[in-house]
Target: HTH cro/C1-type domain-containing protein
Amino acid sequence: MRHLLGERLRQLRHVRGETLDQTARRAGISPQYLSEIERGVKEPSSEMIAAIAGALDVTLVDLVTAVADRLVVVRDTARQPACQAAFALAA
Model:
């Protein structure tokens, strides 16, 4: 989940045309920490996620919903067999 959260935060930051420094400054964190969050290396607290969401002018609900929607897609993709041969092997 932290990788998907990081991807979404990076997407939002890029859409705004911002650097790590700009977003991190508004969120009250270091650019290095924001980079680690975006890369899925760190698992931020809920307070930190809320601060970053605020810095990106997105509500926490919208951010979490986007990540949850992405989780559903990833889950559903993982459940689908790669090819028809997988059906035959399963039988």
The radius of gyration is 17 Å. Confidence is low (pLDDT under 50) at residues 85-91.
